[in-house]
Amino acid sequence: MISTLFPNVNWEKMWEATFDTLYMTIISTGVSFVIGLIVGIILFLTSPHQLWANRFVNFITGSLVNIFRSIPFIILIILLIPFTKFLLGTIRGVNAALPALIIGSAPFYARLVLIALREVDKGVIEAARSMGASTFTIIWKVLIPESKPALYSGITVTAVALVGYTAMAGIIGAGGLGNLAYLEGFQRSREDVTLMATIFILIIVFIIQWIGDTITAKSDKR
Amino acid sequence: MIEIKNVSKIFKTKTGELTAVNQVSLTIDKGEIFGIIGYSGAGKSTLIRLLNGLEKPTSGSVIVNGLEISSIKGKELRQARQKIGMIFQHFNLLWSRTVAENIAFPLEIAGVPKQEREKRVNELIELVGLGGRGDAYPSQLSGGQKQRVGIARALANNPEVLLCDEATSALDPETTDSILELLLDINKRLGLTIVLITHEMHVIRKICHRVAVMEAGRVVEQGDVLEVFRNPQADITKNFVMQVSDTRESKESIEQILTHYKTGKLVKLIFVGDTSERPIISYLIKEFQIDVNIVHGNISQTANGPYGTLIVQLDGDEEKINKALEKLHEMKINTEVIAHD
Q1: Which of B94, B103, B158, B164 is the mutation pick for testing A, counting most A CBs within 10 A?
Q2: CATH superfamily of the B246-338 domain
Q3: B138 to chain A: closest CA residue
Q4: Please, what is the end-to-end C-alpha distance for chain B in angstroms?
Q5: Where are the domains of chain B?
Q6: Residue A66 CA to chain centroid, in angstroms?
C-alpha cells in the first residue's frame, strides 16, 4: 500500500537522510544551548542595574547577537562558506553544515535566554546577595535553576527552528531530509519523495516538541 | 552592635537627585528589637539595605558586628553578610527548591559540608515550626509558612543580626501575629538583634523595644516604644500611635458623648506600664466623690509592658474635678481634656 502511494521512495536513503537530519539537529542544538546560555547570561548580567552592569560589553554582545540573528539563514550559509572551508577543509556533508547552523541559532537562543533570565524574581537575587552569595553562585544556583522552564521551552523552539535550518542547509549540499527532498524529489519531479521527506520532518518536529514540553512542565514547580 | 553615623544615600535618577536617606544616625544595641516605621517612600527600605551592604551610603558610615559594612567589599563583605540574616516582604524563596533545600542554600554558600547541612536544616525546620514540610515546594505553602522558611533560611548561619524588610506586610493579621511571636521567641532564645522596618504601628507595639520614625529620609523621632506611645512628638508619630490606640474610631462616640453630656469634662487617660494595672477609676470616685463615666477604653501589650487609653467623662464639682486631674498627673498618668468644640 505504502509502496504504491510512494513508488519512488528509497527507504534506505530516507533513513540515512533522517539520521543526517537528526545528527545535525542534535549537535547544533547542544552547542547552541551552551553558547546561547553563556552569551545570554553575559547579556543579562551586563545590562543596566545588574551585577556586571557594563554598557560597552552589553552593547558589543547585543550588537553581535542582533547581527547574526537578523541575517537570513540561507544567506548566512553562503557568507560562511569561506569560514567553513577554513575550519573543516570542505563545504559538503553534515559536519560542514554545523558552523552555519550554530552561528545561526546560538544568537537566537541567547535572546531567549535573556528573556528567561529577566523573568527571574529580582527579590530572589537580592536574597541570595544578602546571604553572601558570589556572582558565580548566583548564576549557577539562582539564575539558571529559577529560569529552567523558560530555558527548556526556549531550546525546544530553537531545536525546531534548527530542523528547518538543516533542510535549508541540505539544499546547498549538507545532506539530510532537506537535501533528499530537493535533489531526489524536486529536481527529479518525484513528488512522493518530497512528501515523504516532509512527513519525516514533521514527525521529528513533533517528537522534539513533545519532549521539550514534557521536560518544561516537569521542571516547573511554581 | 549596629552604629549608623551621619548616613546619607542619594540616588541619581533621570529627573535629578533623590535623597532617600538624609543624615541619619542610629545606635542599635545587642539583643534588642529595633523598629523603624515610616510610610512608603520614607527611605526605610534603603536604610535597612545599608546594614548589609546591598546599598552603599553616599556619605557616612555603617558599622555592624564591629565591621564597617559601608567600606568593605568582595569576599570580606560576602562573609560579613553570612552573619547578617535578612527576611523579606515577599519572602523571596527559590521556587525551584524545596523547603529544606531553600534553608540549605545559605549553608551551601558558607561551604558547610553536606552532612552538617542536613542536620542544621532539620533543626531549623523544627525551630520555625515546619516539621514534616521539608520536602514541600514553596508553591505548596501558605504565606505564613513561606515566611517561616524565610526566617529559617535567614538564621541558618547563626547570624548576629536579623534584618526584617516589611516581613509581615503581605500577611493577614492573624498570621502576622504568629510570625511576630516567632521573631520575639527567637530574639529571646538566641539573643539575636533584630532590626525591622514596617508601616504598621501594630508591629512596633507588639515586639519592638525601641523605635525610630522616618519621614522623607530623616529620623524625626526615636526612643523607647512605650515612651513614644505615651508622648509622641512629631505629627507623623501621632498618626502612627493613633493607628493602634483606636481613637479614630472612637471619635464618633466622643462626639456623641459631647452632645449628650453637656456637663463635666471629657478626659483621655493614657496608661503606660505599671500604671495600667492600678484601680484608678474606683480611686477617683472614692477619693474625690465625682462621677466617672467610661466612654471608651483599650489596652494592648507591648514588648516593654502594657499600654492603654481610657476616655472618661468626669462629672461633679468643678474644683473636685481639677483636683482629680492634678492627682492623676502625680500618678504619672497622662491626661488630655477633650473640649466641646
Answers
A1: B94
A2: ACT domain (3.30.70.260)
A3: A222
A4: 49
A5: 2-243, 246-338
A6: 16
The 10s digit of each residue's pLDDT in A129-163 is 999 999 999 999 999 999 999 999 999 999 999 99
CA–CA distance, A93 with A84 (Å, rounded to integer): 11
Stated pTM of the model: 0.86
User: Which one of A132, A141, A221 has the shortest CB-CB distance to B79?
Assistant: A132
Return the percentage of chain B with pLDDT > 70, whole number.
Answer: 96
Q: What is the largest CA-CA distance in chain A?
A: 70
Q: Which of A51, A130, A143 to mutate to test the interface with B (most CBs of B within 10 A)?
A: A130
Helices (H) and strands (E) in chain B, counts: 12, 14
DSSP class of residue B140 equals G
Please give the pLDDT value at position A124.
Answer: 97
**Residue of chain B whose alpha carbon sits nearest to that of A149:** B96
Instruction: Kindly report the nearest CA distance between residue B52 and chain A, in angstroms.
Output: 7
* Residue B250 pLDDT > 70: no
Instruction: Domain B2-243: give its CATH superfamily.
Output: P-loop containing nucleotide triphosphate hydrolases (3.40.50.300)
Q: Side-chain half-sphere of B88: how many Cα atoms within 13 Å?
A: 18
Shortest distance between the Cα of A128 and any Cα of chain B, in A, equals: 8
Cβ distance A130 to B79 less than 8 Å, yes or no, reads: no
Tell me how close the Cα of B307 comes to any Cα of chain A, in angstroms. Answer: 36
Tell which residue, B227, B152, B220, B157, has the closest CA to residue B182.
Answer: B152
Residues in CB range of B119: below 8 A, 6 or more apart: none
> Which segments of B20-81 does DSSP mark as H helices, in order?
44-50, 74-81
SS3 state of residue B298 = strand
Per CB-CB distance under 8 Å, the chain A contacts of B159 are: none
- DSSP line for B73-97: -HHHHHHHHTTEEEEETT----TTS
**Alpha helix ranges (H) inside B231-334:** 235-245, 247-260, 280-288, 318-330
Place of cell 514534616: B132
- The pLDDT tens digits of the residues spanning A42-90 come to 999 999 989 999 999 999 999 999 999 999 998 998 899 899 899 888 8
Cβ–Cβ under 8 Å, residues B194 and B183: yes
What whole-number distance in Å separates Cα of residue A182 and Cα of residue A8? 14
Nearest to B45 by CA among B167, B189, B197: B197
Q: Which residues of A touch B52 (CB under 8 A)?
A: 130
**Quick count: other Cβ atoms within 10 Å of Cβ B199?**
16
pLDDT of the residue at B246: 60
- All structural domains of chain A, each given as residue ranges with its CATH number in brackets, are 10-219 (1.10.3720.10)
Chain A positions touching B84 (Cβ under 8 A) are 130
Q: Are B37 and B195 in contact (CB under 8 A)?
A: no
Q: Chain B contacts of A152, Cβ < 8 Å? A: none
The answer to whether the Cβ–Cβ distance between B94 and A142 falls below 8 Å is yes
